[in-house]
Amino acid sequence: MKELVWILVVVIAGGSSLNAQKELSKRDQKKKAEFEAMIVAEEKYDELIIAADQAFKNKDYVKARMTYEEAIQYNAEKEQWLISKVNDLDILMARNIARKVDSIFVLPKVEEVALDVDLQLETSIEKRAVPAPLPVPKEAEEEVDEPLVEAVKAQQEQPEPDPTEELVKIAEEALVVEPPKEEAAKPVVKKQPVEKVKVKDDFADLPQGMTESEFDYPDHHVWRIVVKDGIDTIVYKRVKHRWGGDFCFKDDVSISQRIWNEEIEVYRKKYPSK
Q1: 191 and 111 within one domain
Q2: Residues 250 and 239 sit within 8 Å (Cβ to Cβ)
Q3: pLDDT tens string 214-251
Q4: What pTM did the predictor assign?
Q5: Contact at 8 Å (CB) between 258 and 107?
Q6: Does 217 reside within a domain?
Q7: CA distance to 6, 59, 160, 166, 168, per residue, from 171 (Å)
Q8: 95 and 108 both lie in a single domain
Q9: Do the beta carbons of residue 259 and residue 248 sit within 8 Å?
Q10: Domain boundary at 200, 234, 262, which?
Q11: What is the domain extent for residue 194?
Q12: Which neighbouring-strand residues pair with 76?
């Protein structure tokens, strides 16, 4: 009996010790904190990537670029891939804004506007309802019920017309003014506003030599130098983003800043500013 009681005491004591929460060591606490931080970082990374991809689809390239850059700190393994995404977006935005400064809005040619008006006129005429011709009444057939002799006799019995009354009747008819005939309604062509169209500037109005211009945008600054050298026209552009990054182009082809500086210097010596 004593042995049975002793066994029960040992079992109860062991169970209570197992139920007691064991305090983690500092090393384990550090590992736990690192693991929890990693879970939070993964969730934040996924959230930023979804937002960046959506901004890219919406062509909001500035937001997409900034969001990809923010995601770098939450995933060290994807750092190089994210950096390449950021660089690609920087080049894409620089190229887009460089092309934008060459776009101008002009009125369409006179021939195109006249052709559009003629087309509207034809459409208006086709849509008008043409009334069907009225049926021509048949001439009433002459019915002769009385004999010819009676007709002649009746005519002879009629009194001769008074010449005074005939003159009065002629005068009254002369005073009657007929109403003016209504002219056929002319088709009304609704004038559409002539909108300007977007075209690429050919720089035909620029003089020989160098023409320099600068353009400011909320997130970019653009320098453009148009060189007209004889029959050749060369367009140099340099784009600087608000957050940094400097990109150079020659006739819409990306070049290094060193080449840009060297060639511009050559043309500055050839065409010195007055």
Answers
A1: yes
A2: no
A3: 999 999 999 999 999 999 999 999 999 999 889 999 99
A4: 0.57
A5: no
A6: yes
A7: 153, 86, 20, 9, 5
A8: no
A9: yes
A10: 200
A11: 103-123+186-200
A12: none
